Amino acid sequence: MFRKRKNKRFRKNSLAASCVISLIIVQNLIAQNVSHSGTRLTETFGRQTFADSISSRPTVWKTFGTDASNFISDAGDIFSSPLHFGTKEWIITGGIVGSTIAMFPADESIRNFTARQHGRIQDVVMDFGRSYGSTYGFLIAGGIYATGFVIGDDEIRATGRMTVESLIFAGVITSVLKTVLGRSRPYTEEGAYKYRGFQFQTATTALPSGHATVAFALSSVLARRINNTWASVFLYSAAGITSISRIYHDAHWASDVLLGSAIGFAIGNAVVSVNESRSTQTDSSEETYSWKLVPAFNGVSFILTF
Questions:
Q1: For the segment 34-51, what is each residue's pLDDT rounded down to a tens digit?
Q2: What CA–CA distances, in Å, run from 119 to 34, 62, 122, 173, 233?
Q3: Which pLDDT score, from 0 to 100, does residue 61 have?
Q4: Binning pLDDT at 50, 70 and 90, where does residue 297 land?
Q5: C-alpha angle 14/139/145, rounded to 5°?
Q6: In the chain, how many domains are there?
Q7: What does each C-alpha distance from 10 to 5, 22, 79, 260 come to in angstroms?
Q8: pTM
Q9: DSSP codes joined into one string, 193-231
Q10: Are 148 and 154 in contact (CB under 8 A)?
Q11: Domain region containing 248
Q12: Alpha carbon distance 278, 50 (integer Å)
């Protein structure tokens, strides 16, 4: 009975925390947009009514259609990217895989050490980490997207879309690896080297860590988009706590967490880079010009600027 009440309270607190985090993130994104554009949201609606501003925006279906098109395009770019890897990318990939394998011998020792570090304060901190890397990551991403859509801020909506994309793309990669590798979790007491292959049960899908993947995918996108040192420190600290919490709760080996974190970080940054590249290409392809008539000594001069 006590555990049921505790779990219910934990879910409520986690939901409240995710809402607060979403508001803080949106506030930082708005502040960044203001600093870049030199205008405020209130000024946007200063010369027209809110109803007029809503009606002047693209329709809901057109907006969703554009975002869906970008989602499909980004998915194609991300999942086909290994076909275009150069030497540098393969070295990084090899380094991640090699580091994960190199950590296998230390998995048992790290698990035993972490088991001796439990305490009341640690429990609270690690519970936060677990919620940050779970379904509440999708709530934060969805909240950012919804906020951008409602207030008509394309940059905030794009940030929400990128965050959702990174969670889905990284989640697909992690889920496939979990199933194919079929590694037993620590609490099964089968050791760090038990692999069955092609498993679908929670107890036998340890590598890589899904929570670590979600946390770093979420944090890497937001850190890039907010572009603020203190925000980055908070976001990556939260992701780090999530990773440690999986070992703390005996749900993952340290190597599971390392690979999951690397996948989330890589995909999150790749999604932002793909979108920034597309935005740059779009801006450069748009022809902007202006013309004016200027009085001259012999008449009028026509000046075209482009």
A1: 555 444 434 333 444 444
A2: 43, 52, 5, 34, 25
A3: 85
A4: low
A5: 145
A6: 1
A7: 8, 18, 36, 24
A8: 0.81
A9: T-B-SS--SGGG--SS-HHHHHHHHHHHHHHHHH--HHH
A10: yes
A11: 2-305
A12: 31
